[in-house]
Amino acid sequence: MSETYVVGIDGSEGSVRAVQFAVDHASKTKAVVKVIHVLEWSPYTFLTNEELAERHKRRREELERAKTAIVDLVVKKINEQDVSIEGEVRYGHVAEQLQQYCEETGAGHMYIGRHGGGAISTRIFGSVPGALVQISNVPVTVVP
Amino acid sequence: MKIWKMTIVWLISICTPGVVFAQDADRSIDQIISEAVAPVIYPFVGAVFSPMPGSEAIFGTSFPWIVGWLVVAATIFTIYFGFIQFRGFKHSIELVRGDYLDPNDAGEVTPFQALCTALSGTVGLGNIAGVGVAVAIGGPGATFWMILAGLLGMAAKFTECTLGVHYRNEYEDGSVSGGPMYYLSKGLSERGMAGFGKFLAVFFAICCIGGAFGGGNMFQANQSAQQISTIFPFFADKGWLFGLIMAVLLGVVIIGGIKSIARVTEKVVPFMAAIYVGSAIVIILLNIGSVGDAFSAIISGAFAPTAVAGGAVGALIQGFKRAAFSNEAGIGSASIAHSAVQTKHPATEGYVALLEPFIDTVIICTMTSLVITITGSWIPQGQEGHLAGIALTSKAFSSTWGGFVYVLALAAVLFAFSTMLSWSYYGLKAWTYLFGEGATKELVFKVLFCVFVILGASMSLGPVIDFSDAMIFTMAIFNIIGLYILMPKVKELLRDYQTRLASGEFKNVRKEAKASA
Fold it and tell me: A53–B340: do the CB atoms touch at under 8 Å?
């Protein structure tokens, strides 16, 4: 069975570089690349009554938008490069979902792009790579 | 169309006298509004709170039939569902905590979110000022009956929120509409009573609009205005000005569509509720020596009170009235918010919703009441220094530390605003149920809703609370008739869910995660 690489994407230039980096590796090792876009979501946020009533509809729209505007673009581009690739969209905490997706797919390596957030905002809000390094069970490559 | 016209005529009859009298320069605007509105309110209030025939002879005091209606309903639901509020309490916590969340449903409305939104509608001035009214008139003993009403009300809330989810409308675009209007019409139609169901649904919707204008708006505006005027005496005889400010802010959100204000309020309110309960606990701890006396005053006051009009029954009436007003169990409003949750089994939402009266009444209202009793702030009616409503709560809080007045004022304004936002939505749902959806129709409701904020803030507490009570409790008449007819359906849904739960059909994600760790 071929190896699997997971790439976390968010539509940024950094994540495009991460995908390309992973694909370059995969083309040599004949690995499968699986890209995942996580929509940041918590089950404990507060919603207004209007937001409650429209949540199901909004979710459908958000999933559709993420799939067409982010995941499908990447999958289409990589398909042209003769590397096997699949895409996925999920809701949740970004780092936790990436880690969980790696476990589910039996991935042996994870790639993410560097965001380049400021030192202060990273200190306050943390960063996805920072969190992943703490919780990931597989090697993580942060692509600058 | 006839209903539409009748409603407009009724609303104009309420609003116009204030304009006519506005030229009278000798009286304040607040007085003029109070005097103009009171004659319209009282005939209706008198009918809703008319005493049960023969109650004087049985209880020794007049017992409003509507209170009996609420007490009996909550008791019947409690027995019929086998004390679900106690047996299902642990499972409710598990559901809210997300133990049974299906990972495939991530991104949907969670039970926690539905509970918080519904709570922001119920945790309002009813918890601060309403309790102040209950203890002022019913004495400390009213607390006991209030807690009991809260506990019994959990079963009523379970019933109506289960039905709310089961009979909700799910539209093609994925949005949902639910609440008593839908379960009354659809549920009764299933039982071959389509006409009667429609009748109940229409009258519920009319009362829901009234309840939104009353308890969900005027009462909130009135009592927050009163508390603000204790800090800023400038507002003392200018309630209308405070109302105008609140109305503009509310209009910016509900008419202008500036959702950010609503989001901020929704986020701040739970923390404010925690600060409010925390402050109450601090006061109770500072007066720890009086806790024993306070509890004995509550117990003795519940069964053999002195200095309370109507004795124990008087205390009971006040306790039950204010508890129902605060937690809205049996009123039907919360099922509008709960019906949006993502669940394949309506009973789960019933379980979640039964926590509401517990948090609202058994915890928050009791805290207010304990502070009033422990600090000895209650003075019987007719004696010098007697206070009622938020004035009594404020006196109790500030007797330990003057700074609590500011905490209370902030809590009052925030609770009032979030409750108004929720009720503007409940009212609007009822309005569109009656008149259909449409930008102009919705705008008419929203503008009227803002006008009522000004009316509520201007008037004295008496007519405001009477009108609010009458409207809210009339909702319960139509809602509870439907609940009685539909409770076998709820039992069927509950049994189905319990069987599946026992068979291990639903994964407890938390337990599994613990086991694998």
Answer: yes
Say if residues B138 and B319 touch (Cβ distance below 8 Å).
yes
Strand partners, A86: A34
Q: Which of A52, A59, A92 sits opposite B337 (nearest CB)?
A: A52
Q: Where are the alpha helices (DSSP H) in B105-179?
A: 111-122, 125, 131-138, 142-166
Distance between CA B235 and CA B216 in Å, rounded? 22
Beta bridge partners of A91: A39
Q: What is the pLDDT of residues B69-107, one digit of tens each?
A: 988 999 999 999 999 999 999 999 999 998 888 888 888
DSSP track, B379-448: --TTSTT---THHHHHHHHHTT-TTHHHHHHHHHHHHHHHHHHHHHHHHHHHHHHHH---HHHHHHHHHH
Global pTM value: 0.86
Residues B364 and B361: their CA atoms lie apart, in Å, by 6
A chain contacts of residue B262, beta-carbon cutoff 8 Å: 48
pLDDT one-digit tens code per residue, B279-324: 999 999 999 888 889 889 899 988 877 767 777 888 888 899 889 8
Distance CA B266, CA A47 (A): 7
Instruction: Inspect the interface and report whether the beta carbons of B421 and A48 lie closer than 8 Å.
Output: yes
List the single residue in B with minimal CA-CA distance to A42. Answer: B107
Nearest to B268 by CA among B418, B101, B158, B448: B418
CB-CB contact of B252 with B259 (8 Å): no
On whether the CB atoms of residues B258 and B252 are closer than 8 A, the answer is yes
Cβ(B22)–Cβ(B32) below 8 Å: yes
Task: Give the H or E element holding residue B206.
Answer: helix B194-213
User: CA B121 to CA B287: how far, in whole Å?
Assistant: 31
CA distance B453 to B222: 8
Domains of chain B from N-terminus onward: 28-44+70-516 (1.20.1740.10)
> Of A49, A57, A60, A97, which to mutate for an interface test with B (greatest number of B Cβ within 10 Å)?
A49
Two tokens, residue B191? 């039982």
Residue B138 token pair? 């019913």
Q: Are B153 and B330 in contact (CB under 8 A)?
A: yes
B261: left (phi over 0), alpha (psi -120 to 50) or beta: alpha
Place of tokens 């995969």: A26
Residues of A engaging B, defined by a Cβ cutoff of 8 Å = 39, 41, 43-50, 52-57, 59-60, 62-63, 90-92
Query: At how many degrees (to 10) do helices B259-286 and B239-254 cross?
Result: 130
Task: Domains for chain A: give ranges and CATH numbers.
Answer: 4-143 (3.40.50.620)
- The ipTM estimated for the assembled molecules is 0.84
What residue in A sits closest to B173 (Cα-Cα)?
A57
Length of chain B, in residues: 517
